[in-house]
Amino acid sequence: MDASVVYDNLNQANTQESKQASPPAPPPDCCWYPRRHRLALILGCFWLILLVLIVIRLGVLVQKSPIGKVIQENKTKTTVGKCNVNVSESSTKATESSVQLTCSNDWRPHREKCIQFSQENGVWKEGLSNCTRKGATLLLIQDQEELIFVKGLIKERGHLFWIGLNYSLPNKTWRWINGSTLSSDVLNITGDAKLNSCVAISKDKVVSESCASDNMWICQNEPKRL
Ligand SMILES: *[C@@H]1O[C@H](CO)[C@@H](O)[C@H](O)[C@H]1NC(C)=O
Ligand SMILES: *[C@@H]1O[C@H](CO)[C@@H](O)[C@H](O)[C@H]1NC(C)=O
Ligand SMILES: *[C@@H]1O[C@H](CO)[C@@H](O)[C@H](O)[C@H]1NC(C)=O
Ligand SMILES: *[C@@H]1O[C@H](CO)[C@@H](O)[C@H](O)[C@H]1NC(C)=O
Ligand SMILES: *[C@@H]1O[C@H](CO)[C@@H](O)[C@H](O)[C@H]1NC(C)=O
Ligand SMILES: *[C@@H]1O[C@H](CO)[C@@H](O)[C@H](O)[C@H]1NC(C)=O
Ligand SMILES: *[C@@H]1O[C@H](CO)[C@@H](O)[C@H](O)[C@H]1NC(C)=O
């Protein structure tokens, strides 16, 4: 019993001694490989983390650059699929112009409004109420540019379209339906300025007409926000 214990201890001492005595010799297989693995693992992890950090940093940089925008656009197009192509396209367009304006079908966008020409005729008040029923008003013309634009949309010569301007008491002046009086900087009206006169426009002129005559009309609407 005692002898074997001593022998064992001696043996251990021997092996320890031999280990310490020969440091340049390669360690036994059982320990050497795992250590190399561990080292490789740590190094690998380090590089992986570094790589991930670099990729994230690059991603942020690319997103901020204009090229990133295009790449992102392509990414959304391809990943989102056919059905939503229009949605992503219109939203990128919108962010570029920073104003998100959409007009319903048959309504023409112009600056910050949507414009619609009627298909039928009616007296001025019919045009007024028809626009109101659509959640719109008769056209208000802000400046000469807008007048030129709207005139340009009229195809047929001779067709007259009511706008939201009439001759009204109490001040006996031309007044927009929003309550403002007409400025001669915007437009000049051909014809009499008298009671029961309403304003219509054609391809080439702005005229005073009896409010009881039948004309087409133009409505304007707020654009919808996407
Ligand atoms: C985006 O896609 C278009 C074609 O859909 C391609 O012409 C263009 O080069 C692409 N841009 C980038 C930055 O990948
Ligand atoms: C996308 O818009 C175009 C017209 O700009 C239209 O022809 C097409 O049908 C639309 N696609 C979808 C999926 O709505
Ligand atoms: C008014 O507008 C509607 C469409 O919203 C249309 O159906 C109707 O015929 C129009 N005309 C008149 C005279 O109200
Ligand atoms: C009413 O409309 C006219 C014509 O577009 C415009 O010049 C004026 O500023 C408007 N007034 C108000 C109070 O919105
Ligand atoms: C009518 O004109 C007078 C001055 O001529 C002005 O003080 C008044 O505000 C005008 N009324 C309207 C409704 O524009
Ligand atoms: C002129 O327009 C006003 C609304 O701005 C309306 O109250 C008035 O009845 C109109 N006049 C005529 C003759 O239609
Ligand atoms: C309307 O007529 C006045 C005076 O004749 C003129 O000063 C003004 O420039 C004219 N406005 C337009 C829009 O042509």
Automatic annotation (TrEMBL):
<keyword id="KW-0735">Signal-anchor</keyword>
<keyword id="KW-1133">Transmembrane helix</keyword>
<feature type="domain" description="C-type lectin">
    <location>
        <begin position="110"/>
        <end position="220"/>
    </location>
</feature>
<dbReference type="InterPro" id="IPR016187">
    <property type="entry name" value="CTDL_fold"/>
</dbReference>
<keyword id="KW-1015">Disulfide bond</keyword>
<dbReference type="InterPro" id="IPR001304">
    <property type="entry name" value="C-type_lectin-like"/>
</dbReference>
<feature type="transmembrane region" description="Helical">
    <location>
        <begin position="39"/>
        <end position="60"/>
    </location>
</feature>
<dbReference type="InterPro" id="IPR033992">
    <property type="entry name" value="NKR-like_CTLD"/>
</dbReference>
<dbReference type="InterPro" id="IPR016186">
    <property type="entry name" value="C-type_lectin-like/link_sf"/>
</dbReference>
<protein>
    <submittedName>
        <fullName>Killer cell lectin-like receptor subfamily B member 1B allele C</fullName>
    </submittedName>
</protein>
<dbReference type="InterPro" id="IPR051527">
    <property type="entry name" value="KLR_subfamily_B"/>
</dbReference>
<dbReference type="Pfam" id="PF00059">
    <property type="entry name" value="Lectin_C"/>
</dbReference>
<keyword id="KW-0430">Lectin</keyword>
<keyword id="KW-0472">Membrane</keyword>
<keyword id="KW-0812">Transmembrane</keyword>
